[in-house]
Each structure stands twice: as structure tokens, then as C-alpha cells.
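Running this now, will post back.
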Amino acid sequence: MTRRAPWLAALALCAACKQQADPPPPPAPAPALPATEVKRAQDACKAYVDKVCGCAGTMPALEQPCRLARALPDAIQVSLEVGASAETAERDVRQVQAGVRKIAKQCIEELARLPATGCT
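Update: finished.
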């Protein structure tokens, strides 16, 4: 046991002297969506709503898509307001931004599918 005592004491001293690692820096805040990207998303959804609802008057099959499409511009606006709030957590801001991009993508894709329905 006497042979172990110096080693244990040295080990305890080394552990006590070990420098503590600096805490990791906080993640960089999410940059705001560029104004051009926001405008593009809003324009894409407005174009889709205008087109699908314009065709819904003559094509009854597009009445339901028209009703659903009218919520898309509002969804973008609400998402942008939530993301701009000072109370929104950084992780949530990034999720909101991804949601805006997903809505814009949906508007663009649905607009591209309209000619296949006969809506030109």
C-alpha cells in the first residue's frame, strides 16, 4: 500500500491541476431571411393563389385547392412575425425560416402543376 500512496497523490494533484476547457461559444444567431427571399416567397404564393382561384371559377375541381391556397400567404406572414420576435428562441427562428422556404417551394411546385389540370 505504501508504494501506491505516492502515485495516488500524484494522480490527485494532476487531476486538480488540469485546466478546465473553456465553454463552447454560443451558436451564432440565425441571420434574418434576405428581403429578396421573403419577397420571392410572397410573390410565388400570391401568383399561385391568383392562378388557382382564377381557374376555380370555371373548374369546380380547383375550388378546394383554391380555399387551401388562400392560407399560404398568411402562413408566410405569421412565420415571419414569429421569427422576428425577440422572444423566439434561436432554434425556433431557424425552424421558422425553414418553414417559410418550404411554403414557398410548395407554392412554386403547385403553380407548375396547374397546367396539367387544364388551368392555363
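The longest helix spans residues 90-117. More later if anyone needs it.
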